[in-house]
Write a sequence for this structure.
């Protein structure tokens, strides 16, 4: 107990403040805001993908025969296709808006977001010569940079745009109009000089020189060259385990581990290899629909226990409240209702379960027992349904994906069982006044 007390004290005194400081860092918050901004598109696009690729042959034949396949693709292009643009705006506007002017007034981040979108198009397309564009069109890969793979590029140049923009604003290197000019108009003129500088650097300093390289565009250079080793590391089993550990450790101390660790660092990477890219076992769907069973901590099995076997009033009530959200992968009632946060008994299975599930899913897929989960489905899709829809391959592969989720569900339940039983007994004794 002494050691446990010292460990808990160390975590509360040292780890939690440090993690909270990292989570409050303005650049990470901006990256998180950019990711949050694209979430509605991900969900809507996922519904469209389910309709387009519903795993019934008669449906697929009907979609192709009637021409609706092409019409439905428009929705996919309008959601997944513009994620990078929305992220470019969201990250830049959030980051620029987190700074203040000399007079203490908050900087208006919207102009920075608009300039960031234009900068994204400059760096992803201006290096394409006429011959390169012709070849891309022939190969049906000319997308003006509108794909999930360019999320990294969009976010990187959004940060660059926001930093240059705020520097000009703070130094007052702007065009100043008379006070009689409406504020809405004067703000736009204030964005001209920083916008000119950003465009000049992006076009003359980056886009045009890339024309003479073998990559042609900065996005190709970053994705295929500089970022390629980062992708290999970030998509590896050890790093994914580290991400899962840190996420759930932070949640255990009341910090939003997903927002601090997963959304800014890993979601862009995992999204870039999702939806048809079979080169990676680790994808956004792998983690979101494979590891998060009922939400972070794989807590849906715990909810089932509380509904069926709990003896204490607290666990019974939490189970009733949590079952609805838990089915749709929302688990705050469990995390804060039991609670898991700052609870030495329940923190252990909350952290360990996702690590074990990640291991089962990864090696099961590596050894080709389970199929790759790379089709993006809405994160609120219930377990088993999500596995069926997210799996690559035919009916057998989809069934095996459900089997994988069932196995992970049972394993998570067994990991949680001794701990939740112990906590149930503790709560029952407290309620009895023992």
């Amino acid at each position: 107990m002494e050691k446990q007390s010292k460990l808990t004290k160390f975590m509360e005194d040292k780890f939690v403040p440090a993690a909270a400081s990292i989570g409050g860092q303005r650049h990470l918050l901006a990256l998180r805001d950019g990711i949050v901004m694209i979430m509605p598109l991900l969900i809507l696009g996922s519904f469209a993908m389910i309709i387009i690729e519903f795993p019934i042959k008669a449906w697929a034949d009907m979609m192709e025969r009637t021409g609706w396949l092409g019409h439905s693709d428009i929705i996919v292009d309008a959601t997944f296709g513009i994620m990078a643009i929305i992220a470019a705006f969201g990250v830049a506007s959030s980051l620029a808006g987190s700074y203040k002017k000399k007079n203490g007034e908050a900087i208006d981040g919207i102009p920075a977001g608009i300039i960031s979108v234009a900068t994204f198009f400059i760096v992803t397309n201006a290096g394409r010569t006429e011959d390169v564009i012709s070849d891309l069109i022939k190969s049906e890969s000319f997308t003006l940079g509108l794909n999930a793979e360019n999320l990294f590029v969009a976010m990187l140049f959004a940060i660059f745009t926001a930093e240059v923009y705020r520097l000009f604003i703070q130094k007052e290197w702007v065009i100043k109009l008379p006070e009689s000019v409406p504020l809405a108009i004067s703000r736009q003129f204030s964005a001209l000089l920083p916008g000119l500088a950003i465009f000049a650097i992006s076009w003359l300093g980056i886009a045009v020189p890339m024309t003479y390289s073998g990559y042609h565009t900065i996005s190709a250079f970053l994705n295929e060259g500089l970022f390629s080793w980062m992708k290999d590391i970030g998509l590896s089993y050890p790093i994914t385990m580290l991400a899962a550990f840190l996420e759930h450790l932070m949640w255990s101390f009341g910090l939003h581990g997903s927002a601090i660790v997963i959304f800014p660092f890993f979601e862009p990477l995992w999204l870039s290899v999702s939806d048809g890219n079979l080169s990676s076992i680790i994808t956004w769907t792998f983690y979101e629909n494979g590891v998060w069973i009922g939400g972070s901590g794989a807590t849906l099995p715990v909810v089932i226990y509380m509904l069926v076997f709990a003896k204490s009033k607290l666990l019974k009530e939490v189970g009733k409240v949590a079952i609805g959200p838990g089915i749709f992968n929302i688990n705050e009632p469990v995390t804060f209702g039991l609670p898991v946060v700052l609870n030495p008994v329940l923190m252990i299975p909350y952290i360990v379960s996702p690590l074990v599930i990640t291991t089962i899913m990864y090696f099961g897929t590596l050894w080709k027992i389970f199929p790759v989960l790379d089709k993006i489905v809405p994160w609120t899709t219930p377990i088993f349904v999500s596995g069926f829809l997210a799996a690559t391959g035919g009916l057998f592969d989809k069934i095996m994906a459900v089997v994988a989720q069932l196995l992970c569900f049972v394993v998570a339940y067994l990991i949680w069982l001794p701990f939740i039983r112990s906590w149930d007994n503790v709560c029952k004794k407290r309620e009895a006044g023992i």
Observations:
- Residues 395-431 form the longest helix (37 residues).
- The CA atoms of residues 123 and 364 lie 40 Å apart.
- Residues 26-226 form one domain.
